[in-house]
Amino acid sequence: xxxxxxxxxxxxxxxxxxxxxxxxxxEKVIDQMLITILTGQHALIEGxxxxxxxxxxxxxxxxxxADFNRIQFTPDLxxxxxxxxxxxxxxxxxxxxxxxxxFTSFLLGDEINRAPAKTQSALxxxxxxxxxxxxxxxxxxxxxxxVFATQNPIEYEGTYPLPEAQKDRFLLKIVxxxxxxxxxxELATRMLVAEQxxxxxxxxxxxxxxxxxxxxxxxxxxxxxxxxxxxxxxYTVDIVRQTREQESILVGAGPRATQGLILAARAxxxxxxRDYVSPDDxxxxxxxxxxxxxxxxxxxEIEGLTIPEILxxxxxxxxxxx
Length: 322
Hints:
15 helices; globular; Helicase, Ruva Protein, domain 3; alpha/beta; single chain; Rossmann fold; 16% strand; 2 domains; two-stranded antiparallel ribbon; five-stranded parallel β-sheet
């Protein structure tokens, strides 16, 4: 393993430890968040209220020394509330740009499915091109601009489902479950001591900054040095194409899913400290990369068939390369 990959492995290990000081019992979720950052993509986070979705993104931003903004999506939110707008300055007799919260490194879109499609679409250009257009003028966003969008899986009243084009721009769909009994007990115990409460730990500096954004941008290209055999690329293509051939699937994953699965598998290998991609890396990332990109046929949904079950069956039908 070369020097850059060794450095990346070390800082990722440190980042996981620092985030773990605040976030309890979400190790897999933390890994998926780091994969999102490493690949320069975006993630959709789904979980019931109170599982620390917002706190996790705030902690990740502090560990990486990145700017952080949060948008609470509501039905009356306007696109300009996200991107910003030009305001006439009477003193200078000119229009000045008042930047919206999208001008940041990490953007948390809380309950993104509560805003109408017009407002949701304001994020599309920013997510895909890392720039926004305000009054016909295009403004660049930081190269590390990342969107973490959350949605509540159990409450659908007053929500607007995300269009397929927007869901496809999220590399991963990360599901945050409630912690198990031991982790929840530890969290409850920490709340009895003011210094150990998550918000206090962030404010007091107990969570260290282990990597700067410049260092992250410098280390990202090292992922290209990971060995990915041709057989594994073909394996990835076969998995994604199989989603378009399943009778139970109405809409399968597109080519962007193939690219995303390869990117995610490489980042998964780097987090595990390897300089090569294995078939297990690809299989482990399939639920995160594909679950939000496929639509079941209504008759199979009525029968109780779930997307995870279909993906497991699909993986059994594709030959694993040796």
